[in-house]
Amino acid sequence: MTTPEWLKPGIYGALIGAAFIAIVGFTWGGWVTGSAAEKMASEVAEDRVIAALVPFCLDMSRTDEARVEKLAAIRETSTFRQRDAVMEAGWATMPGAEEPNRALAQACIEGLELDAS
Fold it and tell me: What is the pLDDT confidence band of residue 20, given thresholds at 50, 70 and 90?
């Protein structure tokens, strides 16, 4: 079967138009792949969970009998080691968890700085 000569420009135009729409959609239109959408949703969910757990961390720091000593130790450490100091203090370990959460420790530091001022 032979295609008519007038059909070829229409087919080429449709292919070029589809490629153009896909390029524009993914670069400026905000389209994302399924895996990118899952990654973004996972990051947002983790951020929200950490934000929800910060009050527990701050409450654990307020009710700790050795609060003054631990806060002094946290303040004495260098800025990039403060997260480890909060984890060692036990304030970033949620009940039922075996290990402290690094992201929670970092968020707790920010809350402690606001709380301490």
Answer: very high
